[in-house]
Amino acid sequence: MAVSRVYRGGRTRIPARIRRAMGIEEGDELVWEIEDPETMRVRVRKDPCKQLAGKYSDPSLTYDEIEEKADELIG
Fold first, then answer.
1. Which of 7, 19, 60, 63 shows a CA-CA span of 20 to 30 A to 69?
2. Is residue 1 within 8 Å of residue 15, measured between CB atoms?
C-alpha cells in the first residue's frame, strides 16, 4: 500500500514505487472510475504515440494494420 496527500486544486503525487510498478511515464493518462462511495479504480492508459514510436517501421505493414493497433492502445 502507498499513501499520497491531495493538495490545493486536487493535485496529488503518485508515489515512485507505484509509478515504477505500473510503468507510469510522462504522457500516460490515468483513468478514474468510481466503484462505490468509498472505492475507486485507477487504470493507466499508455501514451499511444510512445507505444507506436519506432515499432512499425516494417514497410510491408498497411495503414489499416497500424490504425487497428493504435485503436487497441487507445482503448
1. 19
2. no
